[in-house]
Amino acid sequence: MKPPVLVRDLAHVVGPDAVLWRSEDLLLYEYDGLSSARQPHAVVFPSTTEQVVSIVKLAARENLPVVARGAGTGLSGGSVVTEGGIVVATSRMKKIVEIDLENQRARVQPGVVNLDLSLAVSDHGYYFVPDPSSQKACTIGGNVAENAAGPHTLAYGVTTNHVLGLEVVLPGGEVIHTGAPFWDRPGYDLRGLLVGSEGTLGIVTEVTVRLCRKPEAVVTLLSIYERVVDATRTVAAITARGITPSALEMMDGFTLRAVEEATHAGYPMDSAAVLLIEVEGLREAVEEQADQIAQVCRENQAREVHRAQTTEERELLWRGRKNAFGALGRISPSYYLQDGVIPRTRLPEMLEYIAQVARKYDLLIGNIFHAGDGNLHPIIMFDPRDAGQAQRVRQAAKEILSQCVAMGGAITGEHGVGLEKRDLMPLTFSDDDLEMMRRLKSVFDPQGHFNPGKLLPPGRERGELRVEVSAGGMV
Amino acid sequence: MTSASQSALSGLASLVGGARAATDPATCASLAIDGVTPSCVLYPSSAEQVAAVLQYAAEHDLAVIPCRNATKLGVGNLPRRYDVALSLKEMNRVRHYEAADLTVTAETGMTLGDFQDSIARDRLWLPLDPPGAARASLGGILATNASGPLRLLYGAPRDMVLGMKIATTEGKVIKTGGRVVKNVAGYDLAKLLVGSYGTLGVIVEASFKLFPLPSERATFALSTGALSIARDLRRRILHSPLQPMRVVLLNPLAATLVLAGTPLAREVAEPEIWAEVAGSARVIERCARELDELGRAAGAPPRRLESGEGPPCWLRISDLRGWIPDTFPGAVILKVALPDAASEEFLSRASQEAENDRVRLASFAQLGVGILHLCLLRTESAAKLIALIRRLRVAAQDLGGALMLECCHWDIKSRVDVWGPTGDDFALMGKVKAAWDPKRILAPGRFVGRL
Question: What pLDDT is attached to residue A469?
Fold first, then answer.
């Protein structure tokens, strides 16, 4: 088959080995971590900013959408295409351009893998704070697009708090530099607007990030409960006492049994819930905080508070937590992972609400989440071959997110709106709020070429979650 | 100076209720900027009233500048026009406070002092030490992203704001973010508004995440001798496991002036590094021990300030603009933002330049943050001063940073741009401005690139 003109032009920019266009080669790019959508016209792998500019100009000439893609680990459909177009995959832009430890920063290309950056500076005692569960695969560019977080962003902030500057290719092909390698450059904080804009405003081609000093001491506690409500009350009590752990994660009994069977990390098979709690900092401070937290746990009916004795034990517990979603894949043909946020004081009643929803729709829902942030991750198990389940899954998911909003929370804490939740945006935003967002979108992208169909709802009505449950595309 | 018609002004006054509008010369003069006096001052009492005022002003082409206690009102280029001072004084209520969640939502006319008082009973605080201190309003702090040395440990207002309500020039009140600590739904408009100096919309309500008040604090002072020793100490302190709340480097004149306002008054002969640490008694004891070792190794053994001595000094350091211009009329305050490691190099060049021009220079550097304040105290001829400011700006740019004028006479502003050169993102900034404020009624001409 002869490549179409567009493909030849793209190959002229990036070389023939950096363009995929045959249908069988494009299959993988129909998916991200959430769902499947359409096939793009082509997937391109640029290595430089200049190549990205040429690709964007070519797309504009052909009037085709452009969708940036990192590792494709996103969970809201942000990197799949809805109406064809060109996928700009950043996997060849993986250079760490500069590491400047005295100024505690690094300059990287967007395709650098999150964990690789931390590893590159680890020996010097530094790391990059945001640590999504997908950090072995996900890229800094994707982190910027989604404003990604992770267990350890509780104390030190999410991606937007760690980005100093961006180089960005705009939909017209212009290259801008926003932010700076220092704080407080005068002018509007376009960097802050671009972080979390899900590829709808520009394609990031270089990122200057802040590096943080690794703590002197870390203590990891595993608090074990007979009742879920005692675990959630502990979270609220830790927050209310003004103790800020560096991570505070919760797993319910169902989830931790799946995790334990898959990873043998040391989680108790017979409990109703566990909290994985970490404190870090100066040795003296960490000891005090660990004691205070253990006391709060016991006051809230923890059956046992176990302190990890070795680095290996600590790492094993975290490996269990971060591989939880894979573990669940072993026991359910498929699942749907959500990302709502609520005020932390409302955790006990929210977990009860989720249990009710599960009963109402006859679904199995597990919970594993960033409890310290109030960032829930209910996981709805389902079998894609059971067509009757699809609508129930979507309905249950929508009710849970609506309840998050009713409690004063948000529909997404870290996974982004993407395709999945764009029609739920009117749950939390008025027409006027959305109108200002649309206007900013058109300031950056008047033709609507960048990642169309994402983040902003096309209409004003509250719609449904856009996930293809029945197709079995979700992992 | 202004041409706002009488009928337009009375129309405005009726939007807020006649009693909440002032047109008397004294009130208007109290909010003058660079010699430009507004025709009226309005005190709206709700977000909707603010929006109505903005819409009316846009329709009648009246220039509006939002304000509260005017602690930062003077920052910016000369206003092109200035008809209405929009004071948020009446909007000072806490709207939603959940101590156990460590979050609070308040109207932005609330002062930082009142805000801290309202949460201190729960042993919480918003860890900010901005210019204006307790008198600074939440709205002003957000609009200018105002921070002080505490930024080292806690970050800037930008990092603490969870969401906000904004009144727009179309007469709408829009929302961004929320009041939970994590939220990525939609564009983060709060980031755009923070640091926009009132030129896009008026922030009328904001939600913040709060922090536990440290149980104890202690301040240590280290005399550093040469700047090279200061650089060595900065590296050792910031790269140690200690996590100080704030660290500053003061030149001898700055240190002397800071102390002059306190019982510790004395003439300081060497640059000094001041560091404040917080935590339990054990944590502070550890910090004291470690700082002692670091200091001795560098030939600068630290002294620990008595409790009660530190706070007034820190207040003077973070609120320079509150006393320098009064103590030294005509003083110029420059803010320099740099990669942190260039701090001492810049200070050395700056003091050389100042000495050459026989200008007295007090310098305050926030270490680990990379923000420096230079106070030029004795003003020679304006022309000479302007030449010096330009040379300092070039020095900052050479070192990869930027320099802006935070406080100076309008005569200087008419010849030197307050913000400095713009970058390749300026065209986009102009379009963003046009999207929010198409009639250019909000603080016209004052921001970057005369936006």
Answer: 61
B25/B78 same-domain check: yes
For residues A174 and A105, state if they share a domain. Answer: yes
Whole-angstrom CA distances from B286 to A7, A212, B222, B241, B281 are 64, 21, 17, 11, 9
Whether the per-residue pLDDT at B415 is higher than 90: the answer is yes
DSSP state, A103? T
Q: How does pLDDT run across B177-224, given as a tens digit for each residue? A: 999 999 999 999 999 999 999 999 999 999 999 999 999 999 999 999
Say which residues have a Cβ less than 8 Å from residue B227's Cβ, sequence separation at least 6: B271, B344, B347, B348
Whether A471 shows a pLDDT value over 70: the answer reads no
Backbone angles phi, psi at B403, to 5 degrees: -125, 135
pLDDT at A66: 98
In Å, how far is A449's CA from the nearest CA of chain B?
A: 17
Q: Is B282 exposed, middle or buried (0-12, 13-18, 19+ CB in 10 A)?
A: middle
What is the tally of structural domains in chain A? Answer: 3
Q: State the DSSP H helix or E strand holding residue A322, giving kind and residue range, or none if neither.
A: helix A311-322
Q: What is the pLDDT of residue B294?
A: 94
CA max distance for chain A: 71
Strand partners, B137: B111
| Lookup result for tokens 């072995």 | A136
Q: Which of B183, B283, B369 sits opposite A284 (nearest CB)?
A: B283
Same-domain pairing of B309 and B329: no
| Confidence at residue B3, expressed as pLDDT on a 0 to 100 scale | 55
Query: What CATH number corresponds to the domain at position B281?
Result: 3.30.70.3450
Phi, psi of B65 (to 5 degrees): -130, 120
Kindly state whether residues B281 and B348 are assigned to the same domain: no
Chain B nearest C-alpha distance from A105 (Å): 10
From B45, B62, B89, give the residue that closes a domain: B89
Which B residues, 36 through 95, put their C-beta within 8 Å of a C-beta on chain A?
A: none
Give yes or no: residues B345 and B305 share one domain: no
User: Which of chain A's residues have a Cβ under 8 Å away from the Cβ of B176?
Assistant: 433
Check residue B379 and give its pLDDT: 67
Residues A225 and A260 occupy one common structural domain: yes
Distances from the Cα of B270 to the Cαs of A130, A235, B60, B227, B265, in angstroms?
Answer: 41, 49, 57, 9, 15
A224 and A322 together in one domain: yes
For residue A354, being part of any structural domain is answered with no
**Gap between the Cα atoms of A76 and A35, Å rounded:** 8
Of B51, B66, B89, which residue is a domain's last? Answer: B89
Task: Say if residue B116 is in the same domain as residue B128.
Answer: yes
Domain span at B345: 320-413
H helices of A32-160, where? 49-62, 114-122, 140-146, 153-156
Is 80 exceeded by the pLDDT of residue A474? Answer: no
Phi, psi of B219 (to 5 degrees): -115, 135
pLDDT digits (tens, 9 = 90+) for A26-56: 988 988 887 777 899 999 999 999 999 999 9
Instruction: Verify whether the Cβ–Cβ distance A342 to B180 is below 8 Å.
Output: yes
Nearest CA in chain A to B369: A183
pLDDT attached to residue B307: 84
- Residue of B372, B144, B53 lying closest to A182 (CA atoms): B372
Tokens of B313: 């000094």
Contact state of A343 with B98 under an 8 Å Cβ cutoff: yes
Number of domains in chain B: 4
What single letter denotes the amino acid at residue A60? A
Write the ipTM. Answer: 0.97
Please give the biggest Cα pair distance in chain B: 72
Segment A223-230 shows an average pLDDT of: 96
Question: Which pLDDT score is estimated for A235?
Answer: 95
Look at residue A240 and tell me if it is in a domain.
yes
- A190: domain range? 96-213
Q: What does R_g of chain B's alpha carbons equal in angstroms?
A: 22
Q: List the beta bridge partners of residue A164.
A: none
According to DSSP, the residues that pair with A88 across neighbouring strands are A44, A68
| B201-212 residue pLDDT tens | 999 999 999 999
